């Protein structure tokens, strides 16, 4: 099942060229771009691991693309997303975030139903991938 | 030129206009402006200006070739500037960044100026992230490495500089579209540096030598510097400045234009002191902005040179 998280996720995956142009847009707006990766794709998993440092003072997108290439070399089998952080007063939060890498196979989510008192049913989802220990998911 | 245009238009049957007006592009791209500025604002440096002119011509033609589909590879643009201190290497690098930006070879046109300290770390594992940080900052622009030979320490095999060199070489080779590296330093030491790092020599296409300024040029530089700060020499002041330059260049640690700038700073100091001590009543703007012979004669350069003549 194809994970849809962040912007552009209903579109076909962006090419590197398209990513570069999006990143340049972020930088031109003065946002700090950085990369994060994870192997736990649950939608409530907000805190991903950060790759290197946030890039505050790189005027060109090529810098981020270099890091992305490095990151793919190491964590190419995981989800990698780009995060653009706006540090201007009053915002101080992420303005744009989208996936730039996904595993070759995405097994999707298991839906578990728990039967409670009376006829109550509680639903929860968990990624099949997370059945295995961290670092061994996705091949 | 006419022939080339003819054959080109015959080849490009796709309908795109097959001819390029180099002269128009030269003006349009703003290259002419940069080169004219270079001529106007930098005194002397004839061979340097000549080389830059040639490089600009090459790049302009290359760009035209690319627009017609005749060339695909980005030409190697990494350069090395060698010359004595104070000969304008950094200033020219700044202009070069501007020039390359106008020609569209770099996307942003900023200059990041670094030395060994900015690239090389203090302990194991510190160098790579540090170098990469600088490289990332320089992407889309020009990375100017001053006194580049300090990166390589021959006497210490395990010096971290070697690590920085390897990363630099890798990026210089693989990301030629993203940044241009300019290495700078004194001529003889740069030669030695290239000898021990053949990787650099082969990746650098343009070697530009910066000659020392003549005394005459230095005097003109002094005058331009003063004018920029709204000062000027009076006639005896000018004469003694020429004299000062003659003396100064024979002394050790002479750094061309930089020495001149420092000398002028000290002259301004003495000028201010003189006005302050002699002041009783109003001082007019002419007095406030005229450097006289007295201000320059106070320099220790004169003291020392007369002293030296007595000793032997």
| Rg result of chain B | 24 Å
What value does the average pLDDT of chain A take?
Answer: 92
Major beta sheet, strand line-up of chain A: 2-1-3-4
Task: Specify the overall morphology of chain B.
Answer: globular
- 3D shape of chain A: globular
What share of residues of chain B is helical?
55-70%
Q: Which band does the percent of strand residues of chain A land in?
A: 25-35%
Family (chain A): Belongs to the RuBisCO small chain family.
GO molecular function (chain A): ribulose-bisphosphate carboxylase activity
Subunit structure (chain A): Heterohexadecamer of 8 large and 8 small subunits.
Organism (chain A): Phyllobacterium ifriqiyense
Write the layout of secondary structure elements.
The complex is a heterodimer of chains A (139) and B (312).
Chain A: H1 16-28, E1 32-38, E2 49-55, H2 62-75, E3 79-86, E4 93-101, E5 109-115, E6 121-127
Antiparallel strand pairs in A: 1-2, 1-3, 3-4, 5-6
Chain B: H1 2-11, H2 22-28, H3 31-41, H4 46-67, E1 79-83, H5 89-102, E2 111-114, H6 116-119, H7 127-138, E3 142-145, H8 161-174, E4 180-185, H9 187-196, H10 198-203, E5 206-210, H11 215-228, E6 232-233, H12 235-249, H13 256-278, H14 285-289, E7 290-291, H15 293-297, H16 300-310
Helix pairs in contact in B: 3-4, 3-5, 7-8, 11-12, 11-13
Protein name (chain A): Ribulose bisphosphate carboxylase small subunit
Family (chain A): Belongs to the RuBisCO small chain family.
Domain Ribulose bisphosphate carboxylase small subunit (chain A): 4-103
